[in-house]
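#onboarding

Welcome to the new folks! Below is a worked example of what a typical request in this channel looks like: someone posts a single protein sequence, and someone else replies with the predicted structure as tokens. Don't worry about understanding the tokens yet, we'll cover that in week two.

Example request:
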Amino acid sequence: MTTSRLVFEVARPAGSGQPLVRSAVGPRAGILTLRRGQVKTPVFMPVGTQGTVKAMTPEDLKEIGAEIVLANTYHLYLRPGHDLISELGGLHKFMHWDRPILTDSGGFQVFSLSPLREISEDGVTFRSHLDGSKHHLTPEMAIHIQEHLGSDVMMCLDECPPYGADHGYVDNSLEMTTRWAKRCRQAVSREDQGALFGIIQGGVYPELRSKSAAAITALDFDGYALGGLSVGESKKEMLDMVAHTVALLPSDKPVYVMGVGAPEDLVECVGLGVDMFDCVLPTRNARNGMLLTSFGRVVIKNAKYARDQRPIDETCGCYTCLNYSRAYLRHLYLAREILAYRLNTWHNLYYIINLMKEMRQSILEDRFDNFKKMFYERRQDPADTGDDNGLSDQPQSHLSEIF
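Example response:
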């Protein structure tokens, strides 16, 4: 299925004549070429649920180095509507973003935001979280919406079983996800549309992850996503499933773990060979006053920062850290000034995007293991945790940026 709409090249490590090849799992750097530009991997995609990354302009995102963003099919379908966006020239023109956009299928939002839903072989019937109106989403409809949005990377419709679902339920669910994936593939109307990724499910059952990986890769998608992770399972369970599944995937296709964005998780998953990530954690935590740094997390509302004239992170080169003190940021946050959300979000996204760049460079220079060692050595015990509203440890997978 791979066409010129997506080309994925694994970069060569410095000083080596051989490309990085996946023998089992291991870090790799690559270049993903899409219709609207190149994306260097590993990459983190800021979440722009409703056609905007909250508190950031497209120009801001470019300045901090974002090469691709994520938008949400479910929310844009409900408001303002995919037909209207298409009529106005597509999502890129609508949101003034000329770089690649990945859209998720909307499946997770249907299952997580709509308490009244009915799943059938045909699709899922649900009620809008906005007005209670009834809708029916099929695999074909999910592709139709994403094509109308003008997505550069589309995702298949899948069912994401809740954490704790029994083996039988997860098995039946992944089989339906496979059947839906076939229908999504057949629903692509033109070969010059966006690339299409299949989604591998299977919960925390290794044998079901293997079964799903075999079935989905047999359909030859442009790339592969690992779904159903960071939804309540332990960190060990998540990383075990990532390691197990990545080793089963083709080495010439990009691998995307959905909904993972904590710095430690990014480092671990990159070490396992994952290429693409998205999560609301950096932006949502920013709006809740939790700032990400090279030495750990900072809860900016804490009283100890009231007279602290240092930047958030003295090693950070972002606009916020170059211009504003912890004391001022604390004042803005406690006063609920809009500028607090903007400056905090700028910093958190800059930190995450720069972290990905640093990992990529370490892979190219064949020193990722040393990078990882230094990453953990720099991080102190998070003195501010316990006052973080639980945000740092909560599962963030696919949580939409609607609040």
